[in-house]
Amino acid sequence: MASQYYQDMQESFKNNNKSREFPAHTAKVHSVAWSCDGRRLASGSFDKTASVFILEKDRLVKENNYRGHSDSVDQLCWHPTNPDLFVTASGDKTIRIWDVRTTKCIATVNTKGENINICWSPDGQTIAVGNKDDVVTFIDAKTHRSRAEEQFKFEVNEISWSNDNDMFFLTNGNGCINILSYPELKPIQSINAHPSNCICIKFDPTGKYFATGSADALVSLWDVEELVCVRCFSRLDWPVRTLSFSHDGKMLASASEDHFIDIAEVETGEKLWEVQCDSPTFTVAWHPKRPLLAYACDDKEGKYDSNREAGTVKLFGLPNDS
């Protein structure tokens, strides 16, 4: 029997299954993220900029474009509780903290390598950034100074704190999840999660689960307390690039080079919906308060129609009559 939640969400998506795209950049978009209050969406791009939109009912209105990086903006994230601050990681060996109230860069922090991963600790005090040389630097969010630096002997893919802020997780190229205590950064456990490269990791807002996506096209759901795999989702055929839990922790979106985004019910693993795409998806992010999914896809190969810009961001979950 399908759960009531499943039936309700299917009904909701039947009436709200419109996707709309919004011009954001002049080149492909690597990363999208919502502010904690859900009022703004930020995007980072190969065009070396970040863009910020305001969500107005059922559309995104571009508020600003943030320039300053001299290389691609590979990842960005917002402060966990302050909806005005976000941070960008770039291949130019810096991270930059931006304030949407002044639209200015409030700090540029020089790092040792080309940055590809970034996350903000749940308590807001620390920013962790990972580079192409598998070094993770922990930066004080107030003083903008480095607190600690760890060189890893394996390929570091994505990084994240646990919701309680007391553990730090890394996914790696050998298919493992490495767990360190925080702030001590002592190894607690290494979990053999996947037979191949473990690419991405996300924690659900309730703190009950985390999910990993890997090159074997599987998404695994893990119990945070027990550190055991609860179930796998296997509807994608290509390496899983990006994951996002819905605001209530009950849906998990996953995407890859497949031309659809899978939306699963977390508790059963059942497919709730799929969002059709024209090309591979780089990044997905559920809105923090409602069933609205932001995402960005690769540019359609060789298919340039004059009215379609390269670097768009998209919203799924809009009313059919909007």
From TrEMBL:
Alphabetical UniProt keywords: Acetylation, mRNA processing, mRNA splicing, mRNA transport, Nucleus, Repeat, RNA-binding, Transport, WD repeat
Cellular compartment(s): Nucleus speckle
Cited InterPro entries: Tex1/THOC3 (IPR040132), WD40/YVTN_repeat-like_dom_sf (IPR015943), WD40_PAC1 (IPR020472), WD40_repeat_dom_sf (IPR036322), WD40_rpt (IPR001680)
Domain of life: Eukaryota
The UniProt record lists the keyword Repeat: yes
GO terms for cellular component: nuclear speck; THO complex part of transcription export complex
Extent of the WD repeats: 22-63, 66-108, 191-225
Keyword Nucleus in record: yes
SMART domains according to UniProt: WD40
GO biological process, one term: mRNA processing
A Gene Ontology molecular function term of the record: RNA binding
PANTHER family in UniProt: THO COMPLEX SUBUNIT 3 (PTHR22839:SF0), THO COMPLEX SUBUNIT 3 THO3 (PTHR22839)
Role summary: Component of the THO subcomplex of the TREX complex which is thought to couple mRNA transcription, processing and nuclear export, and which specifically associates with spliced mRNA and not with unspliced pre-mRNA. Required for efficient export of polyadenylated RNA and spliced mRNA. The THOC1-THOC2-THOC3 core complex alone is sufficient to bind export factor NXF1-NXT1 and promote ATPase activity of DDX39B.
Protein family (similarity comment): Belongs to the THOC3 family.
Subunit structure: Component of the THO subcomplex, which is composed of THOC1, THOC2, THOC3, THOC5, THOC6 and THOC7. The THO subcomplex interacts with DDX39B to form the THO-DDX39B complex which multimerizes into a 28-subunit tetrameric assembly. Component of the transcription/export (TREX) complex at least composed of ALYREF/THOC4, DDX39B, SARNP/CIP29, CHTOP and the THO subcomplex; in the complex interacts with THOC2. TREX seems to have a dynamic structure involving ATP-dependent remodeling.
Record's protein name: THO complex subunit 3
Organism: Crenichthys baileyi
Gene (name only): THOC3
